[in-house]
Amino acid sequence: MVQKYQSPVRVYKYPFELVMAVSKCSALLLLQLLRAAASGQWEAYEKRFPTCPEIPVFLGSEILHESKSDDGAIHIIERSCKLNVDAPRLLKKIAGVEYVFFIQKNTVNWKERTLRIEAHNETFANRVVVLETCSYSVHPENEEWTCFEQSASLDIKSFFGFESTVEKIAMKQYTSNIKRGKEVIEHYLKELISQGITFIPRWTPPVAHGQKAEQAPASSHDTNDAPLESGAHGATKEQTGSSCPPAEPVSPDADKLDADYIERYLGQLTPMQESCLIRLRQWLQETHKGKIPKDEHILRFLRARDFNIDKAREMLCQSLSWRKQYQVDYILQSWRPPALLDEYYTGGWHYQDRDGRPLYILRLGQMDTKGLVKALGEESLLRHVLSINEEGQKRCEENTNLFGRPITSWTCLVDLEGLNMRHLWRPGVKALLRIIEVVEDNYPETLGRLLIVRAPRVFPVLWTLVSPFINENTRQKFLIYSGNNYQGPGGLVDYVDKEVIPDFLGGDCMCTVPEGGLVPKSLYQTDEEPENADHIRLWTETIYHSASVLRGAPHEIVVEILEGESVITWDFDILKGDVVFSLFHSKRAPETGHKEATLPSSSAAGDNVQLIDKTWVLGVDYSRMESPLVCREGESIQGSHVTRWPGFYILQWKMHGPLPCSGSSLPRVDDVLASLQVSSHKCKLIYYYEVLASKDFRGSMSSLESCNSGFSQLSGVTTSSSQSQSSSHLSR
């Protein structure tokens, strides 16, 4: 298995030239290096490439090749570097080596102010492949700042049966060196500043012989005129070069994450955790262009799966499709709880806890769960719970900005006084378990702490029923107090300020959470249309439709176009498996008992419809309008096609598989592996399509309605197609 690492963008608030000098690692040599630059002896000190006492793993290097451009702007050095590996003595003895050697190629461009470092291992190159790339560049929004990025991969093919051990040692040492490398640069930068050295002149092109030197711009300095700046003048340069940072950390690139931003809004992450976040984010950008959720939301799913990217990606994609299908992004705008809930649902937000987390209070013991289920049904209760979770995420963002530190979860205080056997009513417990399942799948790591107070004797019975459905990580956040144990030291005051403890728990703060009570039976619903026993229907009508694609049985829908110059738009998500999407045109109407209307109507989950007759011949009875598009599991596809002729247009999704072999050709390895990974002969997707007049196409993409989601930060940009037979716009 190949281990990969991708760093965030780290910003040093110092000029590029100063950071380059610091990379020499020795403060004493730095001072000599600066003075050597003034006297034209820069090359001699670069060739020394001194060892760094702050990084003892580096033992020395030897230059293999060196070249410079004619004007001296580009300098390339290739070195063999000797490293000491912190590995068990037995492993070193078995491997037969004491040290390892790497080949490193440095390309510095003083004119463009960039440095690219490429490295690969020379030792055990036939058994282990280590590749690393580092780059330094000027910050795009502040030329006096320097950006740093780093990526690496480790592929252990074989290592005397110790592959797993070597992988763990290598990744542990590599991540520790990443953190140490940043600390070293910051250390020497501060040491230089303390000595009054805050500026190194930028590179300037050499003056041709006999040509009069032109006046250098104010931002450039000749190395012979100003070798270095220190003292009072240097302080002025520091103030100019290290201007006050913006109120919010700004990433050098909109598609990249800045390390300061991560620390400010997402919290302290290890290098590998940062790498997992960046790699999953990059995957989402590639497959869900313009439609990725917020960084803190991605991070929650990674934490829920212990930063296993594959498992987190699967969980996140399922959740995003669920949100899209049931329009959860709009719930805070569209859902208004019935008056019955306002009066009898005993829960509400109440300030925040000691850590700044939003505090939600639930007086479960005073709630008539049986009455609420009978009066409102499971769906209304679920909608209400989802709106609470959406509101909680919104409050976390507000508290993050308010307190100046990452707040990514909330605290729930549950009062069980009054809990009795009525709360163990089987349909009520069943509804509770279903709600827990939905919340666990789609709002992971949003609960920071659950404080349960005044737990009665019947509570263990309820806990036995509910706890198996709660994630282990979530269960570890539960604190349970029986009787009056919540009072005094070790109780609520350890987690909630005394000033905000509710009055009904002995505090001085008035709490506006409803007191609940029994729901009158006169408000109970009749059983004319009972809810589905196996699934909670979030929305009775949804614009998205579910479909199953079977091997050899594609799913097809037909759109009849009565006049030309119409636009067919589509939007679909692949929930399971890989499919191939195609668009066909026919003058003949498909002969089937199940015909699709121009505008889709609700269809049952798992519906599969085939319209193209097996006797039809491609190119005779029907023709292809779009090239086949392979859509991978987890991808989200939007597109459009401007029709040229009237007739019947067929949208087709079929299972993707290896192409048939011809003659002596063999199937590709990737196709064979892909076919082996399919766990069943069924793919699943959700889709929506719509037909618009071409004049109404621009800005009227209701099929891309989900792109306006504030939660998912989706981009609603659409592009009008040119009016031709193959005119279409596809966006992943």
From TrEMBL:
It holds the Pfam family CRAL_TRIO. Residues 337-513 form the CRAL-TRIO domain. Residues 22-197 form the PRELI/MSF1 domain. CDD domains: SEC14. Residues 540-691 form the GOLD domain. GO terms for cellular component: cytoplasm. Residues 208-253 are annotated as: Disordered. This is SEC14 like lipid binding 5. It comes from Gallus gallus.
